[in-house]
Give the backbone structure.
Amino acid sequence: APDMNTNEQTMAWIMDTYSMHERKTATAVVTGKPLSIGGSRGRREATGRGVMISANEALKMIGLRPEDTRVVVQGAGNVGGLGALLLHREGYRITSISDMYGYIVNERGLDMPAVLNHLREKRTLEGFDGADYSTDGKAQLELDCELLVPAATENQITTENVDRIKARLIVEGANGPTTAAASEALSKRGVTIVPDILANAGGVTVSYFEWVQDRMGYFWTEEIVNSRLEQIMVQAFSEVRQTSEKYGVDLRTGAYILSIDRVASVYRMRGLFS
């Protein structure tokens, strides 16, 4: 499926090349494709939607409400940008968002549809009316907020800046944005971290939906895709939370325990040569 520096067009080329070698159309070989060649409705927004669902569940856990939650989002792509838009629609106050050049900030809250329109037209957040702009991207992570969503690249929260992170909750939209040492330090301070393996799983979940639809040759409505995604994400969050509480560990460790236990249970059931 698409990741950094790839998109629906890239996936279409991969599918087409594979199909030529197979001498038949093989839509199920890759996901994140355009709708016209077997893509799934809701796939583009899926990772950001998973971040939003994870944030909703985490807020219930720590006793916050969306309307009382200031959000800083690092990244303005399919994960950060669409995630921020969905959080905005849920009533969260998005105070800052960044792209690869810098970030904008407005403590009163950003108009996310207007921000994304500006970004589409100008290819940069610079010049957006109604917000201050800075090129010091590292400083953005240290802004006052209740919720921080690192949704850009890995190794953004490290031992160098962890002491200056002010968020009460971190929902990892990117893969590996928090180093192991920084994650441990934040947990000791009581900061709740929803790990990437859970928080950004919306994309791979809807990629699975796309594969199923391609195999069936029958495609679902966007409402069905979003509903089934929410059901799976909420259940997954609940299971990770229960595991973390059972063993007295953070959510990241709870997710690993749950995952490893599931793999081990399959081996126990199937036998040595599975």
Summary: The radius of gyration is 19 Å. Residues 27 and 171 are 32 Å apart (CA to CA). The first strand starts at residue 70 and ends at 74.
